[in-house]
Amino acid sequence: xxxxxxxxxxxxxxxxxxxxxxxxxxxxxxxxxxxxxxxxxxxxxxxxxxxxxxxxxxxxxxxxxxxxxxxxxxxxxxxxxxxxxxxxxxxxxxxxxxxxxxxxxxxxxxxxxxxxxxxxxxxxxxxxxxxxxxxxxxxxxxxxxxxxxxxxxxxxxxxxxxxxxxxxxxxxxxxxxxxxxxxxxxxxxxxxxxxxxxxxxxxxxxxxxxxxxxxxxxxxxxxxxxxxxxxxxxxxxxxxxxxxxxxxxxxxxxxxxxxxxxxxxxxxxxxxxxxxxxxxxxxxxxxxxxxxxxxxxxxxxxxxxxxxxxxxxxxxxxxxxxxxxxxxxxxxxxxxxxxxxxxxxxxxxxxxxxxxxxxxxxxxxxxxxxxxxxxxxxxxxxxxxxxxxxxxxxxxxxxxxxxxx
Length: 405
Known about the structure:
Strand content: 5-15%
Low-confidence stretches: 1-18, 398-405
Number of strands: 10
Oligomer: single chain
Helix content: 40-55%
Number of helices: 17
Shape: globular
Largest sheet: 10 strands, mixed
Structural class: alpha/beta
Distance between the termini: 13 Å
Radius of gyration: 21 Å
């Protein structure tokens, strides 16, 4: 058996040979992130099957995906073991480990909102910018993510890069924080730029700070919120980090074929409006960007090879995994699992029917998260041959025969 140093040397040799890097991209969605954990568990098993436990050299995440991405980057020395641990954490997650649900906390937050509205901020600085106190989440992530080990895994070549995105509330710009051991070119596009960074707890919590519900998080002297807010190109960080192959794990169910949409003339409640808003902000970007990538690939395939070499565009292989069931419907069934205080808060915004989508982001309870991890695992297993072929093809051209010994 190869010793630890020999194994790390082999890993570094493989990493240095990667040209067509394989990236794992995970999107946002609050508690929906449990679905990604189930998919990742199946991916780890498939990677073992194809003989490449270190397949993913670039890992990117946004919102809940940022939590999952950082956890995996910190434990990438054993992808299979870390994937199982990630699934266990989601399945045993308690809502009180994410945000406070006690009446005192709600009372203080409610008072801040009321004081600001009634006095128009005359009694002091405005303080009301969130509905839920996520102090417990900071402690929970500190207990379970070894941030120092991310650097170690980068230096040893276990991963090439980790990136997380968050939204700068001062400039309305999407900032992608990049921790990379390999050289790359910084990017500065309209409303989205990169920033070299050592990923910390605040970067993760900022990326996962659902607008209105979670408080903005300070990074340096600026405040940030959920990375999905201005995330118009979720696949872009992986592409900028030289990934030639991207496996995307989304959390939005895409119905096959025509699905009749029920029509109602009822006045939309706040819960309904918030649900539509959050779906638009947190979910739609990934599916739209995958469609855009496929169109670009098709266009590039029509261009002669000689002319293609002159273009800044390149063909990117992409595999998109998303839920085969409606997660909002699952959340509706698990609604009563919410603490009474949260049900009271949500009930004040609209009916249970209207709040299904909204609740799907906040249901950090074991029964719901376990159903999502099971769904993610089943969905990936159902596509096992396709995923295995994708990983084999992605890595076959980027490794020399020696690298596969």
